[in-house]
Request: fold
Amino acid sequence: MSKLEEIKEQLKNYDGEDLRFMEVCGTHTAAISENGIPNLLSPKIHLISGPGCPVCVTVTAVIDKLTELSLTENTTVLTFGDLIRVKGSKMSLADARAAGGSVEMLYSPMDAVKMAKNNPDRNYVFAAIGFETTTPVYAMVLENAIEADVHNLKLLTSLKTMPEVIRWVCKNTNNVDGFIAPGHVSVITGSDLFKELSEETGLPFAVAGFEGAGLLTAIYALVKMKGHSGIKNLYKSAVSEKGNEEAAKAIDKFFEPCDASWRGMGMIPGSGMRLKAEYAEYDAGSYGLDEDHMPPGCSCSRVLTGEISPDECPLFGKKCTPEDAHGACMVSTEGSCYNYYVSGRKKR
Amino acid sequence: MKVTMAHGSGGASTSELIENIFAKHFKNEYLDRMEDSAVVPGSERLAVTTDSFVVTPYFFPGGDIGRLSVCGTVNDLLMSGAKPKYITCGCILEEGMDLDDLDKIIESMAATAKEAGVTVVTGDTKVVEKRGDFGGIMINTSGVGFMPEGIALSPAGCKDGDALIVSGNLGDHHAAILSGRMNIKNNIQSDNAPLTEMVSGLIEQHIDVHAMRDVTRGGLGTVLHEFAGASDCEIHLYQDKLPVSPEVRDFCKMLGLDPVYMGNEGKMICVVNGKNADKALSIIRASKYGEQAAIIGEVKKSDNNGVILHTAIGGERLIGPLYGEGLPRIC
Reply:
């Protein structure tokens, strides 16, 4: 029997106490569904999705600001795909576009600089949403804009970082037995980031890539480490202990840590990044965008922290579907609700 | 030379445009009469379809909007089991479009029509003012096909024990267009192609085909979801049997796209009586554009209709229709 088959058998037949592991990264949430992993596990092993989908944790004040900017004369909002359909307190960027707003979807971040350079009389605002993974990309955009002497491109930032929100989850919920640590974030930060968290919380962390076999191996490592702190890096091909120092340098040049407001969780100290004061001219008004507005009945906050399973939300699959999403978790392809819905996952 | 508003005036410039480009390439006994409508021989049962094409850029790796506009309509006729005979060509041109580009597009359309075995019997051209986001040209094609006796295909026709055959690699067209838009350099080519040869092969050799559909926007997942609902059955798909080229697989991985939901323009999914599966597969594989065909799953009678994907590592998940726009992920 191959090593993988052995792991599969052990995970399927596990009969100890109930275990709850949180995958923090939205791409892991998607990969778990895509690979059909839940039904390869014993009913006593539960996977819960954490607050690691960038679009899902963006508060409505940010969306509102973006829609307002898109409807401002001579201003275009640039964004990556998923964000377009997320509702603010009144409308989404897609609604704003239909109402005459100027919203462009970017495929490549560097197109932002090109567009601004080619249309010097128009103002461009790039919706800079994301975690440690995406922040270096925005740093690169700024680097290029400065080099090209472009001054009509600004960022509206809602940038988040992982460690504080994981700490928050551990403090505020009492139901996680281990973490599948975010693979992409770890590429940038290095696996050392989770060492401290593991010691502090007494919980195991397994850094995993995005293939089915890698995820199963990570889950198996967590089962083995249950009840103890410890870190297992199963994504060594891409993740080193210290991370990508170039990316860290690029982030440090333009951004500094700040408190950040998370959808459904509120303000978490030290959990975000903002532009440094010397680059204030590139900020499109990101300060103070903390308000969050949940539609009635929406349980995003409890879903994002793993307190309930997506299908336990009363709106799930009824009033809230990918075609008519009430909460961001149902919009993003990395959202837990979206993934439960499209792949037919259910609470076990 | 560029397209001007005069080319749409209905006067001398219009005639010149039609003569120098459309009539030159499409030349045939029905079109050459240049009458208000084409009068053509018919058949007792006809299949009729129409489709519009707005792709940008209009030249893309492996094809162009002209070839695409023939393939789309011809393939729609074929999927009903019809033998495609005639198509029409309605072009809306944007002022400022390059006339050499138009010539290449119409030349490509004529060559594809010839390959697909259809005649372009009538056409129309209009010119609209330059508006920037139009993309130069939009084409509408309508098609007419003759229905062979005894053929009646329907998404509701899937039966217990049927086999699912896909005619080749998934996602090529979608990945090629997206690569172009995202300025990603790779060797991925669109698969836009008329499926005439493989479909005629199946019908002429009396394969018991129950349902067919070309796998276009929405991808295989959306088509099969519809089949399962219409036929009230369970469709089982095997991930490790789905044909996807290594380039497209890597491309999808990089952008977080799922080949099951990627569009093609020269692939079909074909549901046949399980007893005919091997013969049908060899007919498709022997035909032009069918070399990579594969049996990818089967139909089972069940109280729960739906599509179940058996993943490569042994897991299972449901396959619903495509939701949203099939966009790349944010991180």
